Amino acid sequence: MTDTELIGPIQMGLNKPIHFTDIESSVRDIVNITAVAVIDALVDKKKASIK
């Protein structure tokens, strides 16, 4: 598994997840955490529309 990449940190266990980056984050890190945040938002929106 040499082609893996760590994405995070993501604070969980709250009402909503918190996505944050470090001051030294690369553009790629920011894009990756943004993608995770968008997916979380889409899942939340879908859950809300089902209720």
From TrEMBL:
Single GO term (MF): acyltransferase activity
Pfam families assigned to the protein according to its UniProt record, in alphabetical order: PTA_PTB
Domain Phosphate acetyl/butaryl transferase: 1-38
Positions in coiled-coil regions: none
Protein name: Phosphate acetyl/butaryl transferase domain-containing protein
Signal peptide: none
InterPro entries xrefs: P_AcTrfase_dom1, P_AcTrfase_dom2, PTA_PTB
Annotated organism of origin: bioreactor metagenome
